[in-house]
């Protein structure tokens, strides 16, 4: 039996919003050790939960039983372990263990002149943690990180290891893991259930990803207003014209014209030989300088003080922050441009909701009303602009972006500075009100999915297929926890 690491008995997520006291805390470094932990837990009647970087704000990583921290399962694996079908393009397949951080993955890919076709705005998550919650970036032709997965290697109940792919998969035989037996499953429903599964089906040990050649991205950030921009948010307009498109909106009006200001971020591939000066290699100078010079704790303390002491100044502080982000041109390697950078160090938590392409603009209009009302009635303010990111729909049954093949969703994110008075209340209020516009909350962000009327069968049309696969892999309930209880996922 691998020994539990007794040094750290209290587990906290990145902003201390979730705190757990697992009975056993493990940091395995081989698949054999994961198998041993699962078997030991089952023998003693305990449950098992894998956790990555703890960068989810919801309770999805909590357990009172055995917690497996995956950070030591962080090796890049050789594609020689695979047995690809003859026609496969193996040059763009990449195999890694679950606990590799996205930043480590980017460095490893870059060293091979490869890159992720898309990613979120942050790189501190583990690859398995990010994929299992359908973490996304932007782009109506690009899916979430889950869309890059060709195969998942999962350790399930009894310590059985499964290599799961689509029905028309990439392999002729399972991945080779030394003397560990692996079963190859090529089945669409098992695949679409296991990639985005929040650790409910087992411990993801490794992933096979489809990557692309390295590329440069150019980012441009311009200031505009919602009334102007909303008309251009069409496939024939801004959405179709840009590889990545994001809109940051001021929730409040700061002038009498009755409009909300916003910042539009456009990112597009540029030629490899594009010349870059020092200025083009950095984001807006004020943003860059604050990131370099201001320690995180000081920036967090100043912002918290300003927002809580002078709440009525929130709209203007947000406006100022939007203006400092304006930027004519930033060109760099794709993964550097897609990473939001220093803003990720601000201690904050957020709610993020996926809206259908047909209803997100109605949702935005409703949000403006809600924000205005709670500011007027209770001086409660959301302490950040909210962002719109447009993402291709997904076929994974429990991805928030689930939808028709050629459509997109608009992911709207509401960050709140840690320590904001009324922060959680605002997010709960928004979540509650946004279900009526077809909104589905991001699994890794603040959410109450499963509670009350917002059950998974109502939010996800293919939930019954996911449940069939849950029951296929989890007959004993080994991977149950607080989260599966609230979502009524029962073996
Ligand atoms: C600063 C910051 C920026 C962010 N930016 C974005 C963004 O741009 N886009 C976006 O979509 N999200 C974003 N997020 C949310 C984040 O990407 C997700 O919450 C992600 O799931 C966190 O990854 P993690 O490695 O920390 O996983 P954890 O939070 O540790 O775990 C997430 C889930 O994955 C499961 N899990 C983890 N590892 C395994 C494994 N090996 N096997 C089985 N299950 C596993 C856990 O049980 C849990 O259910 C951001 C979060 C932060 C803090």
What do these coordinates show?
The chain crosses the membrane at residues 284-307. It holds the Pfam family FAD_binding_4. This protein has 15 helices and 23 strands. With 491 residues, the chain is α+β, with helices and mostly antiparallel strands. The protein has two domains: 1-215 and 462-491, Uridine Diphospho-n-acetylenolpyruvylglucosamine Reductase, domain 3 (2-Layer Sandwich); 216-441, Vanillyl-alcohol Oxidase, Chain A, domain 3 (3-Layer(aba) Sandwich). The protein has an eight-stranded antiparallel beta sheet, with helices on both faces. A six-stranded mixed beta sheet has the order 6-8-14-10-11-13. A hairpin with a 5-residue loop joins strand 10 and strand 11 (161-165). Helix 4 crosses helix 14. Bound molecules: flavin-adenine dinucleotide.
